[in-house]
Write a structure and sequence with these properties.
Length: 328
């Protein structure tokens, strides 16, 4: 199998070359006619497998180049980062501009072949700019403008090669989550059954007499709706939880919101690792007839995922609205 590279201009031609079985570049005799260029390679000269062939090698091309381009600096929202620090997890906001300075020590960069995707789709042209920094095109500045993206999870993949025959590639995967740590935390979204979207309502324990209701209802402290846990009868341990993998261990988080409750309720944060519960943290909230703000700080051990929970084990109504979890 041959991989061919054609030179950009015959005036630069320095002949034809191939890579032999030991990976060394050798001159390749060719026969040219007006209709074709004929080349001959014996299988044993390339080890019986695949090789690369360069026809009309430009004078600037360094054949024996196996090093990819490098990012000499990465700026995200004006802050310097290394390539190893681009999987950023939760950021709470869009990143604005990402600026990469890239360079290749031997060959020009293939700036026309730059590929950047956002969540596996090509990045819009208006969000990408490329600026060569010298006449050799071995240095360039790449700017990604991510301002104005709606909250969500994002993966940016950048791939840039040089113009060496082997097309050595620099890849830079960037990921971040700008969505709130708690989704639908104002409970304005509900399904057809009145259950809150992104939340899991239920009971942790019950008996034959247990009767309860967990649903989104009008009458929120903020907005039009709120979550209401109503205990009616029997053994009650009502919960409404949201699972997240975005909380970091060792980081103190501030859990805020508003509630009102006839007979008291509670907040809980649970961390699970390897199928085992490693943290069960809880804060009781006393009965109150009016909407009342709460603030609770918690820190979790290393975990695979966490559950953020509101719950009640009492009869009567307990309401929650305007919940939020943010790093301290």
């Amino acid at each position: 199998m041959l991989g061919c590279w054609l030179g950009l201009a015959s005036a630069w031609a320095q002949g034809a070359f191939y890579r032999d079985a030991e990976g060394r570049w050798q001159e390749l005799p060719t026969e040219r006619t007006a209709e074709a260029t004929v080349l001959r390679l014996a299988p044993e000269t390339i080890g019986g497998g695949a090789t690369l062939v360069v026809l009309d090698k430009p004078d600037w091309m360094v054949l024996d180049d196996v090093a990819p381009p490098v990012a000499t600096s990465v700026l995200i929202a004006g802050q310097e980062r290394g390539l190893a620090d681009l999987e950023m997890g939760w950021t709470g906001r869009a990143l604005g501009e990402i600026v990469l300075a890239v360079a290749d020590a031997a060959n020009p960069l293939d700036l026309d072949g730059l590929r950047v995707t956002l969540n596996h789709a090509p990045l819009e042209a208006r969000r990408l700019s490329v600026e060569p920094l010298d006449n050799t095109r071995r240095q360039a500045r790449i700017t990604l403008n991510l301002a104005g993206l709606p909250p969500g999870r994002y993966a940016v993949d950048l791939r840039l090669t040089d113009l060496a025959p082997a097309r050595n590639a620099l890849t830079a995967p960037i990921s971040f989550n700008s969505a709130p740590l708690l989704l639908n935390a104002g409970f304005e979204e509900a399904d057809e059954a009145g259950k809150p979207v992104n939340w899991s309502p239920g009971v942790w324990s019950s008996d034959a007499d247990t009767k309860y209701d967990i649903s989104v209802k009008p009458g929120g402290a903020e907005g039009e709706k709120a979550l209401c846990l109503t205990g009616l009868a029997g053994n009650l341990n009502m919960v409404c939880s949201q699972r997240t993998q975005d909380l970091q261990s060792g980081v103190t988080y501030v859990y805020t919101g508003q509630y009102r409750s006839e007979n008291g309720c509670a907040l809980t944060a649970i961390a699970n690792r390897g199928g085992q519960e490693v943290d069960y943290l809880s804060l009781g909230l006393p009965a109150t007839a009016d909407w009342t703000p709460f603030t609770w700080e918690f820190t979790l051990q290393p975990h695979d995922y966490a559950l953020i929970v509101v719950r009640s084990g009492n009869t009567g109504e307990s309401w929650f609205d305007d919940l939020r979890v943010v790093p301290k």
